[in-house]
Every structure is written in structure tokens, then in C-alpha cells.
UniProtKB/TrEMBL annotation:
It is an enzyme of class 3 (hydrolase). Residues 36-211 form the GTP cyclohydrolase I domain. The lineage of its organism: Bacteria, Pseudomonadati, Bacteroidota, Sphingobacteriia, Sphingobacteriales. GO terms for molecular function: GTP binding; GTP cyclohydrolase I activity; zinc ion binding. It comes from the Bacteria. HAMAP family: FolE. NCBIfam families: folE, PRK09347.1-2, PRK09347.1-3. Its EC number is 3.5.4.16. This is GTP cyclohydrolase 1. One of its GO terms (biological process) is tetrahydrofolate biosynthetic process. SUPFAM superfamilies: Tetrahydrobiopterin biosynthesis enzymes-like. GO terms for cellular component: cytoplasm. The gene is folE. It comes from Hufsiella arboris. Pathway: Cofactor biosynthesis; 7,8-dihydroneopterin triphosphate biosynthesis; 7,8-dihydroneopterin triphosphate from GTP: step 1/1.
Length: 216
């Protein structure tokens, strides 16, 4: 097993702060070392030579990469929303669309990625707009299935902001269906979850119209 370089050790010992309210232990040295050791073995089992130059640092890179790709476990999505809720007398639909989603399927640990479209109808409070994509990331940066990701985002916004309704639509491509398995390159999976006023057909139709409308 290769030694972790000084630079990586320095990175690891740094704890980064996330907007002052959620601590992310970005590179936990014990975790990185242990995951890297497993990947060193995996490389050998795949028929590779883990001691060849190009692969020397690969186990550590993979370990750090995996820790980044699952950093949502260290985030507190409800706290993210609570940190920027403002009293406001606005009761029309607020839509944030085309939010990039990068997640990993829990079955194959391969990426699925695409877009999330989210709306809520305020009920006395609005939320800082950037907090919506941050909540998406907090749930997406974990091992997921698209359906649970969709419901978790809906429930978090509903339970924390307590709006008159929440709508979440997510469209993703799953690499486990494209690179392997069914090998379908163009299929896109759409999931949706609604609460409150979005259960009403007219409100839902308005949301769907807004997320398909172009700005041009
Ligand atoms: N519902 C759902 N299924 C998912 C998601 N991501 C991956 N999957 C599916 O999880 C299933 C796992 O099925 P298994 O039969 O246990 O695994 P497998 O033998 O690798 O299946 P194939 O992918 O068909 O080769 C597959 O059908 C995947 O397409 C997701 O987000 N939601
Ligand atoms: Zn999968």
C-alpha cells in the first residue's frame, strides 16, 4: 500500500466549514486510508499492477473521490433551509428549474445525473433561492435511488418551510443502464413528488408548463 503523500495528508487534516453552520469533515484520514487499502486490493484482483506508476496514487484518489461523491451524509438539509427563511407576503408559485443533479445509484454505485425542477407556494415564508439546489445536493450526494431522492427533497422542503405545496420533478440518465446492464444510451427516467396545492390538477399543470417553458 502506497504511503499517502504529505500534500494529501495536509488536505485531509483540514476541516472545511460549510457556510458556518454545517461542518463537513471533508477528508477523514482514517477513512481515506482504509478505503484506499481496499481499492489497492481491488486493482490487483482486476488483473492490474497497483504498483505501476499510473496507478500508484489511484487508490487514494478513488477514496477521496468517493468521499466527495457521498458528502451529502455530512450535510443537514433542514438546517440549510432554516438558515435562510424570510417572512414575506408572497403567495405565488416559486420555481427553480434545471438544477444539475449528480448522484450514485445504490445498486451499482454508478452515477446517475440530470436535472431537478422544484417549486413551492409560500405560506408566510420564502427561502433563499440558493438553498434549494443546496438541499438537492445534500440528498443527491449519497447512495440513492431516484425515487427516494425525489421524496426526500419534497419532504424536507415541506416539513421545514411549511409552504402551501411543494413540487419536485427529477429527470436523470443512469449510467448503470447505459454503460452496462440494459445498455440503453438514451433512456431518461422521470420521477415526481407533490404536496398540498400541487395535488390540484390546475396548479400542477401550471408548474409543468413553467418548467417546460423556455426563457427565449
Ligand atoms: N427504481 C430504481 N431502480 C434503479 C435505480 N438505479 C438503478 N436501478 C435499478 O436497480 C436494479 C437492480 O436490479 P438487479 O437485478 O438486482 O441488478 P442487476 O442484475 O445488475 O440488473 P441489471 O441492471 O438489469 O443488469 C436495476 O434494474 C437498475 O436499473 C433507481 O434510481 N431507481
Ligand atoms: Zn444502478
Amino acid at each position: 500500500m502506497t504511503q499517502l503523500s504529505d500534500k494529501i495528508l495536509n488536505d485531509i487534516s483540514e476541516e472545511s466549514e460549510f457556510e458556518g453552520y454545517v461542518k463537513i469533515d471533508r477528508y477523514n484520514s482514517e477513512k481515506i486510508e482504509s478505503i484506499a487499502a481496499h481499492y489497492h486490493d481491488i486493482l490487483g484482483k482486476l488483473g492490474e499492477d497497483p504498483s505501476r506508476e499510473g496507478l500508484l496514487k489511484t487508490p487514494e484518489r478513488v477514496a477521496k473521490s468517493l468521499q466527495f461523491l457521498t458528502h451529502g451524509y455530512d450535510m443537514k438539509p433542514a438546517e440549510i433551509l432554516k438558515s435562510a427563511m424570510f417572512k414575506e407576503d408572497y403567495s405565488q408559485m416559486v420555481v427553480v428549474k434545471d438544477i444539475e443533479v449528480y448522484s450514485m445509484c445504490e445498486h451499482h454505485m454508478l452515477p446517475f445525473f440530470g436535472k431537478a425542477h422544484i417549486a413551492y407556494i409560500p405560506n408566510g415564508h420564502i427561502v433563499g433561492l440558493s438553498k434549494i439546489p443546496r438541499v438537492v445536493d445534500a440528498f443527491a450526494r449519497r447512495l440513492q435511488v431516484q425515487e427516494r431522492l425525489t421524496n426526500e427533497i419534497r419532504d424536507c422542503i415541506q416539513d421545514t418551510l411549511k409552504p402551501a405545496g411543494v413540487a419536485v420533478v427529477i429527470e436523470c440518465k443512469h449510467l448503470c443502464m447505459a454503460m452496462r446492464g440494459a445498455q440503453k444510451q438514451n433512456s431518461v427516467t422521470t420521477t415526481s413528488a407533490f404536496t398540498g396545492e400541487f395535488v390540484n390538477e390546475k396548479t400542477r399543470a401550471e408548474f409543468l408548463r413553467l418548467i417546460t417553458a423556455s426563457l427565449d
